[in-house]
Write a structure and sequence with these properties.
The structure holds three protein chains of three kinds. By secondary structure, chain A is mainly alpha-helical. In chain A, 71% of the residues lie in helices and 1% in strands. Chain A has a two-stranded antiparallel sheet. In chain A, helix 3 (83-101) packs antiparallel against helix 4 (103-127), helix 3 runs parallel beside helix 5 (132-155) and helix 14 (327-351) runs antiparallel to helix 15. Chain B contains 14 helices and two strands. Chain B has helices at residues 4-32, 37-48, 51-76, 84-101, 106-135, 139-157, 201-217, 219-229, 231-236, 241-257, 261-268, 279-289, 294-310, 323-358, and strands at residues 164-166, 173-175. Chain B is mainly alpha-helical. In chain B, helix 3 (51-76) crosses helix 13 (294-310), helix 4 (84-101) packs antiparallel against helix 5 and helix 12 (279-289) packs parallel to helix 14 (323-358). In chain C, the strands form six sheets. Chain C has a six-stranded mixed β-sheet with strand order 6-9-10-3-11-12, sandwiched between helices. A six-stranded mixed β-sheet of chain C has the order 18-21-22-15-23-24, with helices on both faces. In chain C, strands 2-1-4-5 form a four-stranded antiparallel β-sheet, covered by helices on one side. In chain C, strand 16 (319-324) and strand 17 (327-328) form a beta hairpin. In chain C, helix 13 crosses helix 14. Classes of the chains: A mainly alpha, B mainly alpha, C alpha/beta. Chains in contact: A-B, A-C, B-C.
Chain lengths: 417, 373, 516
Amino acid sequence: MSATATATPASPAPVRRKRLLPRLLLGVSAMILLFSVVRTVSGADQLTSVGTISAALGLAVPIGMAALGGLWAERSGVVNIGLEGMMILGTWGAGWAGYQWGPWAGVGMAIAMGAFGGALHAIATVWFGVDHIVSGVAINVLGLGLATYLAAATFVGVPGGGATQSPPIPTMGTVTIPGLSDAMDTLAGKEIFFVSDFAGLIGGLITNVSYITIIAVLLLVATWWLLWKSSFGLRLRSCGEAPYAAESLGVNVYKYKSIAVVASGALAGFGGSYLAIVAAQQYREGQTAGRGYIGLAAMIFGNWRPGGLASGAGLFGYADALQLRNAEAVHALLLVGAIALAAIAILSLRRGSVVSAVVLGGLGAGMLVWYLLTDTVPPQFAFMTPYVTTLLVLSLASQRLRMPAADGQPYRRGAGR
Amino acid sequence: MSGRLGRVVVALVAPLLAIAFAVVVTSIILAFTGHPPFEVFSTMIEYGTRPRTVTLTVNSAITYYLSALAVAIGFKMNLFNIGVDGQYRLAAMLAAAVGGAVSLPAPLHVALIVLVAMAVGAFWAGIAGLLRTSRGVSEVISTIMLNFIATGIVAYLLAPDRLAEPIAGSNNIGTAPIPESGRIPGLSLIPGSSNEVYGFIILAAFVGAAYWFTLSRTRFGFDLRATGANQAAAVASGVNVKKMVVTTMLLSGAVAGLVGMPQLLGASYTYSLDFPAGLGFTGIAIALLGRNSPIGIAFAALLWGFLENSAQILDLEGIPKEIVQIMQGVIVLSVVIAYELVRRWQVRRVASNVGKQLGTADESSPATTGASA
Amino acid sequence: MRAVETAQQAPKAVELRNITKRFPGVVANKDINLAVSRGSVHAIVGENGAGKSTLMKTLYGMHRPDEGEIFVDGQKVVMHSPSDAIEHGIGMVHQHFKLADNFTVLENIILGSEPHRGPALDFAAARERIVRIAADYGLEVDPDALVEDLGVGDRQRVEILKVLYRGARTLILDEPTAVLVPQEVDELFEALGGLKAEGLAILFISHKLDEVLSVADEITVIRRGTTVATVDPKEVTAQQLAELMVGSELPSPETRESTVTETPVLALEGVGLTHDGRALLSDIGFTIHAGEVLGIAGVEGNGQAELVETIMGMRQPTAGTIRLGDSEITSWSTRARREAGIGYIPEDRIRHGLLLEAPLWENRILGHQTLPPSAKGLLLDVKAAKADTERIVAEYDVRTPGIDVLAGALSGGNQQKLIVGREMSSKPRLLIAAHPTRGVDVGAQAGIWDLLRDARANGLAVLLISADLDELIGLSDTLHVILRGRLVAQVDPATVTPEQLGSAMTGAGQRGGTAA
């Protein structure tokens, strides 16, 4: 039984990567066009403002790092549901080291705490052969409990701190490309169709970018290179595709799985450091808010590849940013949803699946009606945006995905046929 | 094969080992943070064995028991219903609202509330089941997402002009209080204690019995266990897996809906802002500890209740009561490892027993022991 | 039987002395002695469960022997893992291919021995080397093809290239012809001849005696975990070898009188199955009558599994009808079909036929949980199920200490006997038997054949799918050949030879004699 998705291996071979770049550009342009239209129609300028995009990029980091962590683990054949717990440990680590010795110490401690969680998961699943999901759930319980206890034990009595929060962490710098950033900001403000939205996108990507974000992007690239261009990566991936084949060729499967799972925890912890150091500037109980799980969804959406999961993280990060910054813009998002669903419904019809088309069309129509009949979305519903988005995206995307062949399966040395 | 007694002993070894290990780890952490472990534990035990605390423990345990059963139903089918939390809160809220809005003779009123709760819980879990069978979305992620969505819905509805009204004398708001006919009286089960055990305990015991009976004595239960153990074989034996997944999620959600009932019908009579939260995750831990068996879960629920309630005294002594959460976390993680080790040892022992008794050098044995021809 | 004179002075490529290996409750190898010369093919024969595979795993470093020594080219070696074996020039081509479907041929071959250029993987160098080796030994493959897309013969070639890439001088081939048809076997033997000429030593494990006699230079017989004899194939017959292997006469599956009646039990007409644009089954039509065994021969992967799943109701056909007796069952669920009297012995008993961690009596219920004796209304009838399980264990000679034993603890042969007993006990009208004697030792195999023959005489209709050509020819009344999802030929089991059958299975006859 697969843990993260019962993906049906639909197509015989994955699409060759030659036509990637033009398709990517086309997709991005379509998205900008869609948002441009909706912005003009609804008047919600925040949809594509520099501020929103900037926040979206930032919030994509914890989700993306969790997703990257999930990728490392699952590519080696271990399902890691415990990312949330490891991220929580990371936030505590960032808070505790951060307020005492500065943000970079916080980053280091967060990575260490996350790696510790990863190590526990590795011991349970790789060495003892416990079911991956059961262990992940147990780590979530343990991570939450440990972080809560440590917070109460270390932050109470310290000025600015308390049982549920750490004292403030000194700010970490950000990077902005000077001239270009201002130019984009001005252009975005002019409200010109398509151009302003494009400017908003570019501006958001180059304004007030935290160092953690930059490191995150570098980690993405490094992961791609490591896992697909080096022998370390080939062996690690073989553990997730055919561990007994790897074993028969002398690959130490236990070693690679353990490394992968610890790395997975470290990445989740690193993602947590963003939440504590950049987003809230302190440790706060509950600040992960399910992002570890959303990260898993981004990984699935990305078909277990770094590029794909980056776009998934971006998508969910955007939903996250919108509801945090501007509940009014969430209302406009309904229109985006309605149009997108309608488009997918039409595609579905062309492919011959009438039932899907009807269901999607109905959902899209419902969203449109909701949009037209209301002016705003109540804050409690806005809060749901990232979670509903995750559900919708997973439901729509699940069919064409292919996870590593031995993902989630127990492996014991010498047990192959 | 060892006899009944042997099997009981083996079943106890893992959890006892896990608890012992957790005590050791917790002691280390306590000592490290400046609190002498022995004193902490003895304070907890002293406080925890007072009649009043025992009643509180039992009451907590009833709720945990139901939550764990809901999770266990899923586990038996290899489904992970992490959404018990959202299911029970949504169910409790809507059931409380319905209960406060109508007036019926006593048994019917209670029945209505309970049925509404079960229906809402089932529906909420059913969404995840449907998404899994129709779109292949993992129920792990979908139930977690639904938890958050349920939080949003409950928050939205729990407002003065929707389903709730302000409660006099506090900042709290809650659903309209359930009248007398919808309440379940408590039972004075613990001698020497001034408070009562929730009356719902009877229904909870019944649910446990039904769980055991359904799983081990009915055709449906056999199908469920077979699908969880080996889906391919179950399909070959005639099970319709899609139907099974949805049915199991519905059942799990229905039991999840009951989780809020002991509290609702026995103490608070309204769903308000401070209705207990997080009970769904506790259920997962207890189901793991009790290994999905109704008796095991009962003991695990009592243990958990004891830990939770006896820790309340720690605050007064200046010890963060979250230490208990660490203990719980360590117990959960170590018990799953311990169960796996015990299971493997058992399989090896049975294989070698069979080999000895048959006296054959028969090596075309399948690779359950790792020894293959 | 005369032993081969060890007259050669050059050190043997591989020598095993007094190898013993034990597992919990079982002695798999005892006092094995074996010597293989360079530039020769040395065959190891023995029945299922004799200890051949365990021995080879020891030689390949997958586990350490409890006693005994291994010598490679005259030097004593101790191997802790396959990496050590690879370093000593030993390569193993497994019976069950160890390939990653989602990787390319190249990635599968270089895994664990990747060439570098600085920190990066040197794909170009790897490709060049693979192409060169493939050309040298006549084992052509496309390095960039996904293994998933390759057929069985090609996959085996990839396995062989894997070991040659690592400079193996000694090859171990574990039942290499189990999944090949006669023409592919010839190709393999030709390749082996080439390898032999290059000075490689080849260890060839098989239980197919005629093949072994045609290709081996020396044969060692293993029985019940120990070496019984080492013989020269030129001086021994298949019959004598068989008797050495078993210690007694080999049974044969031959059937005598016909029990075929006129009553149709299963009738397929125009059945087709398309998935994702690919036709898995096309225009399948046949009728099985009561008392008839209809066999379907074919290379694995030509639609047999899909056919079985379609008849069982696990897949819905996209065209055609299926009739069971008088009823049309095309849209019926699996459960309904089972209740109507279809029994099923699955090809993979562990995946489709058993709950390994459940006791035997619960496994007896599996597949029959809605009918007596396992069920009474909506409830399970545990007492009756247990009693019936005892009966099955006795009647079908399932060797087990009791019915509360977990199914996973039984040997493969006993598991299969339990399954056969379970399926027969529901008095089916139609029995689907997919590879019913796979992985079963010779004694149990004879027993299962007898059971099938008896049931057939009592009016049972049997659909027999098998890769064992002797089993098919011996048991079937009617014999069809399936190729690429179509029934392409019907042959007379009374007169056809395994070679002719093999031809039809690969379609050689269709295309005017050219082998696939």
